[in-house]
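Retro notes
What went well: the complex prediction finally ran end to end.
Inputs used:
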Amino acid sequence: MPKIKSLEELQKLRQQLQGDIKARAETSTTITVGMGTCGIAAGAREVMHAILAELEARGIDAHVTTVGCIGMCSREPLVDIQQGDEPRVTYGNITPDMVPRMIEEHLIQGNAVEEWVVGRVAG
Amino acid sequence: MAEQYRADVLVSCLHGRSPELIPALEEELKQRGLETEIKVVDAGCRGFCSMGPVLLIQPDGIFYVNVQPADVPELVEETLVKGRVVKKLTYREPATRKRIPHYQDIPFYGKQMRVVLRHCGLINPQSIEEYIAVGGYQALGKAFGTMTPEEVIAEVKKSRLRGRGGAGFSTGRKWESARKAEGEIKYVLANGDEGDPNCFMDRALMEADPHSILEGMIIGAYAMGAHQGFVYIPFEHTLSVKNMRTAIEAAREYGLLGEDILGSGFDFDLELRLGAHSFVGGESTALMHAIEGRVSEPRPKHVHTTDKGLWDRPSCLNNVKTWSIVPEIINRGADWFAGIGTENSTGTQVFSLAGKVNNVGLAEVPMGITVRELVFDVGGGVPKNREFKAIQIGGPSGGCLPASLLDMPMDYETLAEAGSMMGTGGVIVIDDHTCVVDVARYFLNFLKDQSCGKCSSCREGIRRMLEILTRITEGKGEMADLETLETLGRVVKSVSLCGLGKTAANPVLSTLRYFRDEYEAHILDQTCPAGVCKALIEYYIIADKCTGCGVCLPKCPQNAISGEKKELHVIDPELCIECGVCRDVCKFDAVGVR
């Protein structure tokens, strides 16, 4: 490995390495994927993989976690996005090809994709 | 770009069963194709020893205790795939019997303030990358980039940090003396020779966060103008040695040790020195003798080691915990540190909780916390709802403080006034089933073996005190013994050379001060009120409590108990060896001691 020759290089290296411990760091964005049996059957695993790939490709700092069935099995896969103290936005019937738009519009532009939203829960 | 994981499983308790746990977890994740999503991290000690092995799952903060390899499939399926908590693996609070699934809600952790242990159990100690990612070596960069050596010393002085090895000397003043000392070659040394029988915070720190110690040492070397350092560790602490060695090598590869560190023009390198584990070996001059390859015996200190230490050159020895605090002071400022704790004892202290306390383990709390808060809030109280009797603070040469001092704040001065000491923070909780005379005898027996023998006061004095205490526990004591003990204790304390002798009488003097009645009971009444000293007690069955369940019968190693089912049992005093097994197994408290 190369020697670190200055404080700037150390800080650059730190930024690169932060991805390694992302799951342990504080973040204001949490994406939750419904992963009950119903969710998995409807393709939630593939959706989660698409989300992870999209976040990595765009270098977005967010936690991805899983939850059990919320009871709305007909709308699985369900994906929740929670940012800071804002209401949690729940998207339904998400497929992997919908993920890029959801990330682009919700996380980058700050507008929820209203046509896919099934509900909001106060944070 | 680093690999991105959605969850990290932090596995602690390397001395427990986690060597099996980590492969089991990795195998299970692989079988389910989750190995690229979830990372298993071999993290250091979380300090919650009574609950180990423990797992922390991030980002959810789910905390599992007593995890066995057999629990792995369920844990992966439920928590890591489906996001559900496995209830049976969560921590159950002893008092309320409530399950607490999240790490931050557990009182043992919630009441702590972790400065020294800030990374312990949260990063992989073998990875310098993880240390850098959590902000490691930033303080070093700050010191090099924006502070002169004098400013670093001024900052440490302003924080009023005191040495965490036990003596509590001002770290800033020590650094200043070493900086001002004449001589071109100077050394910085880290003391990892933890000797107290119930303490393991230094070991835990070296195992779990070795880079914080290195960073502190490099900053200290820069401040004092030293270019060579040594870390002294007992060779028996194999994992400490391994992780410190890995850390030093990694720091060298990254150019954080060696020549021209971070382009500052400052050179510094570190080496490990392994010693044989002993109590006196952690004394500063004894430790320096050991690094020089000589017998680890203390010498008189009228010439300070900051002037003439290792190889007669100016040397600054600090405990590994002290070094580990330094980067935090540089990063967050002296005022932040000085704002924690009390006026003269700033910052936090790591206590290792042992004895009759529910949450056995390492707890780091602000200085000045009361004994009550430490034992009952953080420690979870005394098991089996027994009565709290005393607390032994400061290791074997500390003192025993009674329940009447439960609300006393724990800082250097208050503890010393009460006849105990902070020491390295060893704490043993004593309940009403423990005899304080026996406790004092136990510690003197330890110190007798650990005394290097150089000073006759310590070598002979401890032996004589031990003989008298042993006599008292055997029921052969006299009232005049108590005065002899006090005189002997004062002499050993005042004329011995090093800290071992100077404090060796503390367990005797403090118990005599607070528990004189218990000594008198042994001598005058020929009884041991706690029911421990075998020569003075007799076990018997309490007639109206015994249900005749028969549980004690097969447990008695002497077959001294007899009785028919559902009828009163009897102990034969001739056969009984006072082992106390029957008393421990009886569910009805029907075994008494007199």
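What we learned: Chain B has a mean pLDDT of 91.
What to try next: split runs per interface for comparison.
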